[in-house]
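Entry under discussion copied across for reference:
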Amino acid sequence: MDARLDYFSSETAGRIFKHIATSGRIIKDSALPTSTQELVALRVSQINGCAACIDMHTKEAAAAGESAVRLHLVAAWREATVFTEPERAALEFAEQGTRVADAGEGVSDEVWERAARHYDTEQLTALALLVSFMGLVNRLNIIARVPAGDYQPGQFDH
């Protein structure tokens, strides 16, 4: 299966992707814990149905030492006992930030307050940026029908 579009061969996309990649690296290097970032990226991608990003973030998380059990339970994090309270707060934030049309108000005050108990302002900023960033990347991949399965950890680290 081939993607509908090859963003890497497009002059317009190439110019924009340079900035998207830089943005992704800045978020990755932020104070938000790497494990939290991968869990959030995976959950947002699951909600949006982006197979390419699910593939990528599952493999990146595993390469960083994340357990298979936790990766398998991300979709059902509310019923799972394997996530910390800060991770649970970040996953709830990610879900509401992703399902803005469903939530009506986006991230509720209660969810924001729970996240703010565990993350400082810089980390909350990174969390909000990550949820938004993943929404952008998910949509680009879904529109182009980028196939999943061949991603290798670190593939886009330059």
